[in-house]
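note to self — DONT lose this again. spent like an hour looking for the file last time. sequence + predicted structure for the chain T wanted, 224 res
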Amino acid sequence: MSLAATRLGRVDYAATYAAMQDFTARRTADTADALWLCEHDPVFTQGLAGKADHVLHPGTIPVVPTNRGGQVTYHGPGQVVAYPLLDLRRAGCHVKEYVYRLEESVISTLAHFGVTGHRVTGAPGIYVRLDDPFSHAALAGPMPAGDPFRGLGKIAALGIKVSRHYSYHGIALNVAMDLEPFLRINPCGYAGLRTVDLSTIGVTASWDEAASVLGHKLGIYLAP
């Protein structure tokens, strides 16, 4: 079955989270997979591994506990959030491979805009070089103990949940956001981790354009 993308527009996070849970609880082996693309009103979401002290000063932005993996992150306008609702058994991939495919989709999306995305071992998500995000050179050498992100900025966050081999939650790609709320948390549990978007690294792209590219790449990389 093909992965059909549905654009939800700007939607409330809590309501979308509940809808994902309901979809997953009701689905059967015959249910078609889905891909929801959306953006959210400002919200901090806390994963199962999240620690309260990583939320530094949320202010008026709500903090919503979730059952996804990972720690705290921020969602807001100008960010493309993709929720693949996938039957992993039907797709023929295990969780580790699924995460790899999600990250490959983001890396390929960034490449569309001329940006090179990087993985950091042990820190899910995609990162770019702050000094030259368009450099195609691979990251070299081990991560320095005092600077585990060695001049990198995080441009995409990842957090998933798998229940009865059905996946939900997903990935968030920063396009053109107000990045200030990321300063109110330790993003994904890392104090001082710089967060960037396409706009701040010099790429002009609309939300619609980025959503179209990411949706297309996910359709390719998540195909059985």
